[in-house]
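Lab meeting, action items carried over

1. Structure of the two-component assembly. Owner: GW. Status: complete.
Input record:
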Amino acid sequence: MMATRVHARLVDELHEAGVDFVASLPDSRIAPLIEAVEADDRFRHVALSREDEGVGVCAGAWFGGATPCLLIQNSGLLESVNDLVTLSIFSQVPLLLVVAYRGYLGEAHWYHGPVGRVTEAVLDALSIPYAVADDPDGVGTTLARARLLAETSSHPVCVLLTLNALEGGHAPD
Amino acid sequence: MRRIDLLRRIAPVVGDDLVICNQGGNSQDWHEIRPANNFYLQHAMGSTTAIALGLAMARPDERVWAFEGDGGMLMNLGLLAVLANARPANLKVIIFDNENHECGGPYPTMTASTVDLAATARACGWADARLETAEDGFVDAVGALADSGDLGLVVVKVDVGTDGAPMTIDAVEGKFRFVRDVERKLGIEIIHAPEHYSTTF
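Predicted assembly:
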C-alpha cells in the first residue's frame, strides 16, 4: 500500500502530539505510516525485529530526553507484555503505544480475530489506559491526550487505531 | 577472569559515560566500581541492549555503553540484527559471557555449548564484533571500541560469580537516579512540568 494523505496526516498528528522518536514493526496497514515516519526528519526511527525490543528502545530514548512512540500491530502488543510490565510499569517509564487494532470491526482477515478479541482485555489486565481511535478526525487529539497521560502518569498509554481510522474513514478491503 | 576485575580495568576508559547495565551480577559489580550514570536493569531481561540503543539514538553525541550478559543477549538475538541496521556510531556493547544463567540458575546458557555471540553479530552485519578470552586483550579491545567511530561489540568470557555487594536500589529509585544523572550530565530536562499543570486539582 502506498503512503496516502491519511498517512501523511497521521505523521503530522504524531509530531503534533510531541512524538519525536518512533520504534516500529510493520503491519500491512501501518507500513506506509512507518515509511512516512522514516522519511521524515522530525523523527528518529528504529526498525525492530520483534515488538518487545521496542519497549526497551523507547525507554532508552525517553532516558535521552526524547518523546518516543512504539508503533506496532496488536499482535506485537501481546508479544510485548513482559517488557511492558517489567520495564515500563515496574520502572515507571512513560510510553505511548500506537497500535493497529486488527481483528476489530471491519476486519477482512479471519486470522486476526483471536488477537483482536483479547486486545482490550489484556490492556485492562495490565491497567494500561487506552482509547479506541476509530474516527479519523479524532485521531490527532487522541494521540496528544494519550501522550500527555503517559507522561503525567509515568506509565504506558495505548491508542488502538482501527482500520477505519487507518483508512481515513473508508471501509477497508 | 572475574568480571569485577575486568570492570576495574576498563573503568578509566568508560569515564563518566552513560551505561545501561544488565541485571544481577553485571549491575552489582559495576555499581561497586562506578555507582553514578548507570541504569540498572531490574527484571526485563533481554532489554539491556535495547535500552542502550534507544538512548544512543536519542543522544547521538554521547557515548553510550551496554553491559550485557550472555543470557540477556540470547533472549533477544534479533536485537543484533536491529543494532546492525540502526548502527549508532556512539553505542558500545560489551557482553560479559559467563556461559551461565547466574541469576536464574546456575544453569548453563547456549554459549557454553554451540553459540558464539560475536560471530552471530558479524553474521547479522556488525563490522566490529570480537571475542576476547584474556584480560589484556579485552582491555585493549575496549579501548579501541571507545575510540572507534562505529558501533562495536566485545564479548568476553568470564567466570561465574559476582563480587559486588547486593544492591538496595529498587526499580523506581533506579529510574530516578538515572534520570537525574542524565539531566545533570547532559544539561537537559527529562521530566517536565506538564503543560496545563496548575496547583489546583
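2. GW to write a short summary for the group page. Key points so far: The CA atoms of residues 130 and 148 of chain A lie 13 Å apart. The two ends of chain A are 12 Å apart (CA to CA).
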